Amino acid sequence: MNPTWTDTQLDQQARDRRVRTAVVVTVVGLLILAAAGVIAWSWRAELPDPVASHWGSHGTVNGFSSLGGLLATLLGIGGALVLGFGAMTGFLGQSAANRRIGAAAAIWAALWIATLLLGTLSVQRGLTDARDAGDVGNVLGIALAASLVPAILVGVFVPGDPHRPTERPVAADAPRVRLLGAERAVWLGRASSPIGFIIGVPVAVAIVVIAVTTGLWWLLAEVGVIVLLFIGLSSFVVRVDDQGLSIRSTVGWPRTRVPLDEVVRADVTTVSPVRDFGGWGWRTGRDGRVGIVLRKGEALLVQRTGDRSIVVTVDDAASAAGLLNALSDRQRQGR
Is the bond leading into 254 cis (omega within 30 degrees of zero)? Predict the structure, then answer.
């Protein structure tokens, strides 16, 4: 970061970064959907009329549509999702975490719809009656892999936030704990919730049942991924020390960190998961806050430079906020 840049210039650079990210992922997502639509339309002479549009639990066709109607429905849904996630990236992407979530979700939505559309139509090419289309379980598996893996890679490679230190003191009315001289202090907490297991276990069991009853054994590989995902998003270790604030999943990822020299102030707040963040887990708030929200109630709120903030639901948030403010004061005073 150029030390001669003003806060206004840095803020403009940050806005440009999130708008650029939003535009790129939105355009790429819409192009993916458009390409899928063109390919699907080019197959129209080889497809039955009407085409199969829905399959039942036993893999048999139980819904039909014209090709144009199917394209309008699926591409319309996909386009709305891409535009929605792109807008989230642009308007709520003050923090890199939110940009990564929005960008990954936009690409996931485009690839999921595109592969689902082309996969379900490909099994109907050459048929005269759509009722003869076979089971599409393998198509669903391919669509899942073809959308999830690239989306994760997009999230990983979206650029992070540049370091934005400040020398301004923490606000005088912010809570503080008393530190004696060069005394070292560490605060540890844990944010956890059983909601991930409550949701994840039934989903994993359902996948196992589907794999056993349909013979699609590759579905069992998804069980491990789902278990790791829900464990990773159900428990976090929160630490405040002379390096700043760190929040890390108990499985090691995801994680995030706020260095002391980016802390504007830390406070205690009260969180309602649905009202403030639309649900539980690693979330994006309506005002662009990053939220690690695993329950209702007391939470640590950390405002950082660049109009960014992070909320984590954790017990004894007052002690964490007071120590983070005190350590930030001391770091800026050079002690």
Answer: yes
